[in-house]
Specification:
This protein is of the alpha+beta class. Helix content is about 20%, strand content about 20%. The chain has helices spanning about 70-75, 85-95, 110-120, 165-175, 210-220, 265-270, and strands at about 10-15, 20-25, 135-145, 155-160, 185-190, 200, 235-240, 245, 250-260, 275-280. The strands form two sheets. Strands 3, 4, 7, 8, 9 and 10 form a six-stranded antiparallel β-sheet that branches. A four-stranded antiparallel β-sheet has the order 1-2-5-6, with no helix packed on it. It is extended and about 90 Å long.
């Protein structure tokens, strides 16, 4: 007896909009994020997990300053012009005295000379404090040689600081910005309003064939026991570049950033979108 397996897909194609664009989903999505996004949904900083305490969190001061107040005052004194003008005084008030972490009580017994001597004695070997979700690990890389007959040489890197990607993904998908994440890939089609000719448009990661094929492969995988949640893909985009830490000298850091391809590039590339996640620091 010949058997025939029939697979039914609940596909969906949206109507063409006023510029002739339509979205063709191989499977019907549970929601449509392509709509007007209010500016209140875009954070000024990267998503963070907040507790029940609503009091402001004062960050730890950079080494070797005893508190953020002294750090801000010394940074102001060593920046800008040598002759403080009215503009500089205004900047002192706005950037230092009216800062949220400024506390006049920290200046009890303050001495400019003592703070300068502390900076002079410091050789940059002080402890570096990272948040609780950051980890430090020594990693080994196999560096290939010029000849294919020679074995790769192992190169050890000490002091690699990073955030586990699982915790970053959970934090991002729990944030309000995840409401506009594209969790279901689709084909974007453009239709010529005059001739009716249709063309495929590639403009986002979630409109690529690679994402569509990966999503279909995910659907074919067996479900986790007892789980009825939708299975979606998190598109991870990494970026790294050396960053100078001062306007003089050679002090620099080499951070590793993460973006989510599920977010449209128009929101992801906005300076204050909060879409950039710091996930690591390469030793340099």
């Amino acid at each position: 007896i010949q058997r025939v397996l029939l697979t039914l897909r609940d596909s969906l194609q949206t109507a063409f909009d006023y510029i002739g664009l339509s979205q063709q989903y191989p499977r019907r999505p549970s929601f449509e994020p392509d709509k007007y996004v209010s500016s209140t949904l875009l954070a000024d900083t990267c998503p963070t997990t907040t507790g029940t305490d609503s009091s402001p969190v004062v960050p730890q001061p950079p080494h070797p300053f005893p508190n953020m107040t002294v750090y801000r005052l010394m940074t102001w004194m060593n920046s800008g012009s040598h002759q403080k003008s009215e503009t500089e005084i205004t900047r002192l008030v706005k950037d230092v005295m009216q800062a949220r972490d400024f506390d006049a009580r920290d200046l009890d017994g303050f001495s400019v000379k003592r703070s300068l001597r502390t900076l002079d004695r410091d050789r940059g070997q002080g402890p570096v404090a990272f948040p609780d979700d950051w980890l430090e690990k020594d990693i080994a890389l196999d560096i290939p040689s010029k000849s294919k007959d020679d074995q790769a040489r192992s190169f050890r890197i000490s002091g690699f600081h990073y955030r586990p990607l699982i915790s970053v993904i959970r934090s991002a998908f729990a944030d309000i910005q995840a409401n506009v994440f594209h969790l279901f890939p689709f084909k974007r089609i453009w239709k010529d309003p005059l001739s009716g000719h249709q063309e495929r448009v590639f403009d986002e990661l979630y409109t690529s064939d690679s994402w569509l094929e990966a999503q279909e492969h995910l659907y074919r995988q067996p479900r986790e026991p007892g789980c009825s949640l939708e299975r979606v893909i998190a598109g991870l985009m990494f970026f790294s570049d050396a960053t100078h830490l001062a306007t003089f000298g050679t002090a620099k850091a080499w951070p590793l950033y993460l973006y989510f391809g599920n977010l449209t590039k128009y929101a992801r590339s906005a300076p204050k979108s909060g879409a950039c996640h710091l996930v690591g620091f390469f030793p340099s």
